[in-house]
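User: quick one, sequence for these tokens?
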């Protein structure tokens, strides 16, 4: 009887009712992952300057041959050089002694037309030692005094010198083993002394003459003592005529 009353007393609170389940914890939100950053596009490498070599067959621009012995070929050479990264640079050039002077001057003209600020022409001298000929573009040299001296290796392998304005050219005979460069230096030195207003000198050669002879003319004028007061050396793209006014491409 006592048990029945106890059970009745707790019936209101669910003596026999099942226990309620505890509320479940809220499920975690799915992690948000960001997409991997795209790799930066590789920057284009700057174009490289190919080797510029002038030898007996002609001008070689990075393996592509050019023969600059006529106006059409010279234009093709200039078009090829215009695509190269030469603007604002002093450009190295290798010129073999057996190359034609016309091919060397055509390449220099193409470089300067494309904006090169100079050319460092490497050639072996008479002693077979590599020597640099630093050539300045005529445009960079600016307007030169008319008394500026021009020296040239002629087609018959003799040399001549005169002034940019034109006039009588001094011609120097051949020596026992080629051009008499000693007499040439003496004559040019007198002309340079008479033009104190200029520190430039124009060196050229007939297009058919071996570059080695034209280079020897420069080397003699550059290295002989007493040194000439010359700081700017110019090679015209177009060969002048001895005694006539010299045209420099600007």
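Assistant:
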């Amino acid at each position: 009887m006592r048990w029945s009353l106890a059970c009745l007393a707790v019936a209101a609170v669910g003596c026999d009712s099942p226990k309620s389940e505890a509320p479940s914890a809220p499920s975690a939100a799915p992690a948000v992952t960001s997409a991997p950053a795209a790799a930066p596009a590789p920057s284009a490498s700057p174009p490289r300057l190919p080797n510029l070599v002038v030898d007996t067959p002609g001008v070689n621009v990075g393996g592509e041959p050019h023969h600059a012995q006529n106006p059409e070929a010279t234009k093709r050479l200039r078009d090829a050089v215009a695509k190269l990264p030469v603007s604002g640079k002093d450009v190295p050039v290798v010129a073999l002694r057996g190359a034609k002077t016309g091919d060397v001057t055509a390449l220099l003209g193409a470089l300067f037309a494309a904006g090169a600020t100079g050319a460092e022409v490497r050639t072996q001298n008479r002693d077979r030692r590599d020597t640099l000929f630093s050539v300045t573009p005529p445009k960079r040299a600016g307007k030169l005094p008319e008394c500026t001296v021009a020296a040239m290796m002629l087609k018959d392998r003799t040399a001549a010198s005169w002034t940019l304005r034109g006039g009588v050219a001094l011609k120097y005979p051949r020596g026992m083993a080629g051009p008499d460069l000693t007499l040439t230096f003496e004559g040019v030195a007198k002309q340079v002394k008479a033009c104190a207003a200029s520190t430039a000198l124009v060196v050229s050669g007939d297009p058919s003459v071996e570059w080695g002879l034209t280079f020897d003319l420069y080397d003699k004028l550059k290295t002989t003592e007493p040194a000439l007061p010359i700081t700017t050396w110019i090679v015209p793209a177009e060969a002048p005529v001895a005694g006539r006014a010299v045209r420099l491409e600007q």
